[in-house]
């Protein structure tokens, strides 16, 4: 579970951000003492920081610059200021991305997922070929084989199988699968996931593997 530190002095907005992060199965930690953000960072050791620009005591640019002296942790600035100079200042101070208030939570989640993936190579595997229940999942060729049948996988089908097979025997939530389907800022919604899961199931079933991906109602999916 990725740990995200939220540095936002608007309690209402901070609560909304943390609530959405929890729904996406991130560990959200809100900062309430703004006197020493660096100390908070070293204590929490987050994987990513959401940083407001206008803060008590010192602004977000100051704290970003201080954090950059000790860490390359990804930082997304959130601000009501939308001038080019503010964006340039954010990047020059070491920020990785910038989002202007008010913003849609889906856009923030997209930026978080893209940045985490670029930073931590989410979903990467060191093995090129994985055997699973008699089938062969080839990560280099983007193919799935069973008996004498082989199919070429779409990008979404590949990522769905990747996260499910990597967690074989464990229930994987829909939110976690959707997180694996993000590509930069492209939004994958709940309906899109359902369509992709159903299509993948149908293709695998046609190969002779029935019930390869099992639904756990209210929890997600599993490959046993």
Topology summary:
Layout: E1 3-7, H1 11-23, E2 27-30, H2 37-44, E3 48-52, H3 60-68, E4 75-79, H4 84-92, E5 97-100, H5 105-120, E6 129-132, E7 135-138, E8 143-146, E9 149-152, H6 155-166, H7 174-181, H8 190-206, E10 214-216, E11 220-222
CATH overall fold name of the largest domain: Rossmann fold
C-alpha Rg (nearest Å)? 20 Å
What is the class of the largest domain in the CATH system? Alpha Beta
Assign the CATH superfamily of the largest domain. Response regulator
**Chain-averaged pLDDT:** 87
- Structural class, by secondary structure, is alpha/beta
* Count of helical regions: 8
Spatial arrangement of strands, main beta sheet:
2-1-3-4-5
Helix content: 40-55%
Specify the overall morphology.
Answer: elongated
Profile the largest sheet: 5 strands, parallel
């Amino acid at each position: 579970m990725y740990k995200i530190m939220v540095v936002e002095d608007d309690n209402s907005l901070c609560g909304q951000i943390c609530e959405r992060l929890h729904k996406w199965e991130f560990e959200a930690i809100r900062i309430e003492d703004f006197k020493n953000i660096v100390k908070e960072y070293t204590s929490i050791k987050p994987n990513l920081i959401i940083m407001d620009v206008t803060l008590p005591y010192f602004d977000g640019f100051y704290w970003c610059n201080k954090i950059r002296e000790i860490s390359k942790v990804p930082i997304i600035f959130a601000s009501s200021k939308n001038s080019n100079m503010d964006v340039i200042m954010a990047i020059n101070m070491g920020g990785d991305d910038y989002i202007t208030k008010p913003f849609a939570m889906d856009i923030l989640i997209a930026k978080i997922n893209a940045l985490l993936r670029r930073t931590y190579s989410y979903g990467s595997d060191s093995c090129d070929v994985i055997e699973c229940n008699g089938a062969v999942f080839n990560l280099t060729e983007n193919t799935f084989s069973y008996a004498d049948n082989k199919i070429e996988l779409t990008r979404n089908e590949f990522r769905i199988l990747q996260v499910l097979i990597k967690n074989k025997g464990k229930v994987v939530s829909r939110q976690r699968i959707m997180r694996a389907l993000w590509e930069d800022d492209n939004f994958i919604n709940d309906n899109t996931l359902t369509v992709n899961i159903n299509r993948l199931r149908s293709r695998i079933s046609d190969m002779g593997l029935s019930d390869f991906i099992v639904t756990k109602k209210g929890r997600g999916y599993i490959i046993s």
